[in-house]
């Protein structure tokens, strides 16, 4: 039987010890803050602003964020509701903001002050009032923080959209002018209209002589995947079961990031991907695959990023368990999550809730490889911290099922169970452009090999997460279902990690 401490360590290492990023550098002196690298959005929807006694986010979380491998936080400030009739910010709200900024700086984090009242600026009837309030906000905040260290960064307005689109360059200019009166060298984050869409980067009009601007974009593509089941989006709230990870999906991601990089190079501007994330309803396995791919694509092009978000939804920190949602943390900061796992206390390991949802044994030795023209051996593997299975395939076969890797499931499955499968795999080739799509499925282990959950995954030359998920249409007894990866038409060596199969798993 797999003990809890072994599983917690293995899961923490395995969920995403992907070699997709370099560690963020240590914070330099406050008056020479480094580029923004890895961050997280915080406190936008926390009751601390109105009922401090009910605050979920605490000052200690700033140190936890820093220790977790992040170098900045993006404070989402819904400030308009805290202004009086003369647009003055309340003393209590400013006190709370000061305390958050102070806690972030003391933890060694850079702090972005993001004015987040985008909804209040989207309607034609509200745009004039929005402009008045936004200028009033920056007059007060710019003056208040004019002597703050360079680690404090301003962001003029989150996701301008709707009525703000037509006048966004004017709004940007008038508020930047206010900021520059008292903060001539402060770094300021600005983004394009239409929800900070990369499609509208060319519409930005920035002062050429101001080189202390950081350009941001937000990335939730495809929305059908990242926002499936979102209650606030009528077009997506009834969607479910949308997956991500095909060759076309990955090519779209790379092309999008290349477009941003081309714009940044031409404009000579640093880039911050200020928001990205996939909602819990997408399923943990699929969220891990998407999150790791997006973060890695940004980092490989030199972009900083801020994950959406610490708490509330798209959750990175489990408030109830008082710790990271390990799969998502591992997807974002793989080397930090892996390094922390061996040092975790026995109590922390035993509290890992994922163990209760695992229905297989996550060891590479559980794979059985069948078919003619193949051989396999264990090799060192970063995905598990121990070993992977290298499957040598001499040639392509007529059928995908002619060669495969199969791992048994010990747990039973009931009708309606939500199943998630994740492993790590790559093609063992020096060809950076190599990619192959293969079937991955949970299926009955005897004829007619009924599929319980099925999908396709993309293998490339880079060790990446592969995942499928779905809902069982009927019940199956324990020991009757296998995980299968069909490799008959790959025709080249494959490296495969231990698999993880979870039933009805959702962080608390």
TrEMBL record:
Record-linked InterPro entries: GH, Glyco_hydro_5, Glyco_hydro_5_CS, Glycosyl_hydrolase_5
Keyword Signal: yes
Every Glycoside hydrolase family domain range: 49-311
Keywords annotated in UniProt: Glycosidase, Hydrolase, Signal
Signal peptide: 1-28
Gene3D superfamilies: Glycosidases (3.20.20.80)
GO molecular function annotations of the record: cellulase activity
Catalytic EC class: hydrolase
TM annotation in the entry: none
EC number: 3.2.1.4
PANTHER family on file: ENDOGLUCANASE, GLUCAN ENDO-1,6-BETA-GLUCOSIDASE B
Similarity annotation: Belongs to the glycosyl hydrolase 5 (cellulase A) family.
Name of the protein: Endoglucanase
């Amino acid at each position: 039987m797999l003990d809890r401490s072994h599983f917690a360590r293995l899961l923490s290492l395995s969920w995403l010890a992907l070699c997709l990023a370099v560690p963020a550098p240590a914070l330099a002196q406050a008056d020479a803050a480094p580029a923004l690298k890895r961050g997280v959005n915080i406190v936008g929807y926390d009751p601390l602003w109105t009922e401090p006694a009910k605050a979920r986010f605490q000052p200690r979380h700033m140190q936890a964020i820093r220790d977790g491998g992040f170098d900045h936080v993006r404070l989402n400030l819904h400030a308009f509701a805290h202004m009086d009739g003369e647009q003055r910010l309340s003393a209590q709200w400013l006190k709370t903001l000061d305390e958050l900024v102070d806690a972030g700086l003391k933890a060694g984090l850079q702090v972005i002050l993001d004015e987040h009242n985008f909804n209040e600026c989207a309607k034609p009837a509200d745009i004039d009032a929005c402009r008045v309030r936004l200028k009033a906000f920056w007059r007060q905040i710019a003056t208040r923080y004019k002597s703050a260290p360079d680690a404090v960064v301003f962001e003029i307005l989150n996701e301008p959209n709707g009525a703000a689109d037509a006048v966004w360059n004017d709004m940007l200019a008038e508020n930047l002018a206010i900021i520059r009166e008292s903060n001539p060298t402060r770094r300021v984050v600005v983004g394009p209209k239409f929800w900070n869409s990369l499609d509208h980067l060319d519409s930005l009009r920035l002062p050429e002589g101001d080189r202390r601007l950081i350009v941001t974009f937000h990335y939730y593509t495809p929305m059908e995947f990242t926002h499936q089941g979102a209650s606030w989006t009528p077009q997506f709230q009834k969607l479910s079961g949308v997956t991500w990870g095909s060759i076309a999906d990955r090519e779209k991601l790379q092309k999008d990031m290349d477009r941003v990089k081309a714009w940044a190079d031409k404009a000579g501007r640093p880039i911050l991907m200020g928001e990205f994330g996939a909602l819990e309803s997408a399923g943990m396995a699929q969220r891990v695959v998407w999150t790791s791919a997006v973060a890695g694509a940004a980092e490989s092009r030199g972009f900083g990023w801020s994950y959406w978000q610490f708490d509330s939804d798209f959750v990175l920190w489990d408030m109830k368990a008082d710790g990271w949602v390990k799969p998502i943390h591992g997807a974002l900061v793989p080397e930090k999550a892996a390094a922390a796992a061996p040092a975790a206390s026995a109590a922390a390991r035993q509290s890992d809730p994922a163990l209760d949802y695992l229905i297989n044994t996550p060891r590479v030795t559980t794979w059985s490889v069948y078919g003619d023209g193949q051989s396999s051996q264990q090799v060192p593997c970063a995905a598990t911290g121990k070993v992977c299975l290298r499957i040598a395939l001499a040639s392509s076969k007529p059928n995908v099922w002619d060669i495969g890797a199969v791992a048994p499931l010990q747990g039973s499955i009931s009708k309606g169970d939500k199943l998630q499968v994740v492993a790590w795999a790559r093609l063992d080739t020096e060809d950076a452009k190599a990619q192959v799509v293969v079937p991955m499925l949970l299926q009955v282990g005897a004829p007619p090999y009924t599929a319980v959950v099925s999908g396709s995954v993309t293998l490339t030359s880079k060790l990446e997460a592969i995942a499928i998920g779905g809902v069982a249409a009927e019940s199956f007894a324990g020991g009757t279902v296998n995980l299968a990866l069909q490799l008959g038409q790959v025709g080249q060596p494959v490296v495969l990690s231990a698999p993880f199969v979870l039933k009805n798993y959702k962080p608390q």
